[in-house]
Amino acid sequence: MLFKPLALLAAFAPLAVLADIEFTSPAAGQTLQPGTITFTWKDSGDSPSISDLKSYQLFLCAGGNTDGTYDQLTVLQTNGDFSTGNSASGSIVASIGGSTANAYFLKMISVATAGGTVVNFSKRFTLSGMTGVFSANAQSGLKNVQGTNGPDTQNNVNSAATATQDDGPFGVPYTLQTGLTRYAPMQPHPGTKITAKSAKPLWPTSSYSIATTFMGPPTQLTTLTQAATYSYSSRENPASPAANPSDSSNDDMAKFLNRWKD
Questions:
Q1: Higher pLDDT, 231 or 6
Q2: What is the Cα–Cα distance from 52 to 17, expressed in whole angstroms?
Q3: What is the mean pLDDT of the segment spanning 252-257?
Q4: Residue 136: its H or E element
Q5: d(Cα 165, Cα 171) in Å, to the nearest integer?
Q6: Angstrom distance (rounded) from CA 28 to CA 250
Q7: Quick check: bond before 26 cis, omega within 30?
Q8: Sign of the alpha-carbon torsion through 252, 254, 255, 259
Q9: Coil, strand or helix: which one is 251?
Q10: Beta strands in the chain (DSSP E)
Q11: CATH entry 2.60.40.10 includes domain 21-157
Q12: Could you report the per-residue pLDDT of 160-195, keeping only the tens digit for each?
């Protein structure tokens, strides 16, 4: 399947605030034909504006509305730049999936200039005249879909990723760094209580391409993690150890174990 968008939307949100991209085309429930399709979008009006976002990835998806119930059928844009405009065109081949009504939607992973990501989803639409077949996973997910809403927005913006001069290169958001050596912020100090009820990834999965020819030189070789600046102290427990039990059963066990000392 080939999809070559000229430019596609991004949704990047700065610290702790949700930045939404609102698609204007395709509209909710619209039916399109495979081939060249133009997508358009606008700023939803939520703070911050799109101009505060850095870059984005765009995927064509089909299936349900929760993680694990839909498939990312193809990458439409791997390193999009919103400054190129609010529309993009691409080609979709008929064999990429089926023609189930409102099966398709767009997934956009936008990177905030201050660090972190926001994942936005478009409304659902239909691709008519498709000749492919959805996976069992996507078909199962579609059984629970009602209406034209796509999955809920996922706000993964890192509110702690503010850069300061004291941090030096470690204060620059990782996704904005270039060069063979990059710098990661220090690991956070463990909390005193376990509050998480279930495991959740900090970031969405990254797209990848399998090399079919010899690749060029690497664009990154080393990641350096900032040294911890916090400290902790410990001391010996001053409590006296408890005496050994002295009931008859333990005495018998001691005699039994003593047999094996020699």
A1: 231
A2: 11
A3: 74
A4: helix 136-142
A5: 7
A6: 76
A7: yes
A8: positive
A9: helix
A10: 21-25, 31-32, 35-43, 53-63, 70-80, 87-92, 104-112, 116-121, 126-127, 154-157, 181-184, 222-225
A11: yes
A12: 344 444 466 776 767 667 667 777 877 766 667 777
37: β partners: 90
The two beta strands, 222-225 and 181-184, are parallel
Give 168-236 as a DSSP string. GGGGS-GGG--SSEEEEPPPPPPPSS---SS---SSPPPP-----S-----S--EEEEPPP--------
Tokens (6 digits) for 85: 């405009």
Distance CA 44, CA 21 (A): 6
Residue pair 19/53 in contact by the 8 Å Cβ criterion = yes
Give the model's confidence band at 5: pLDDT under 50 very low, under 70 low, under 90 confident, else very high.
very low
Q: What is the pLDDT of residues 209-230, one digit of tens each?
A: 788 888 777 777 788 887 766 6
pLDDT of 204 reads 62
For residues 180 and 170, give the distance between their C-alpha atoms in angstroms, rounded to a whole number.
15
What is the residue extent of each domain of the chain? Answer: 21-157
| Both tokens assigned to 123 | 């409304």
Tokens of 184: 């990661």
Instruction: Give, in degrees to the nearest 5, the angle at Cα 104 between 103 and 110.
Output: 145
Q: Which two tokens stand for residue 31?
A: 């039916």
Residue 76 backbone phi and psi in degrees, to 5: -90, -30
Half-sphere exposure of 154 (CA within 13 A, CB side): 21
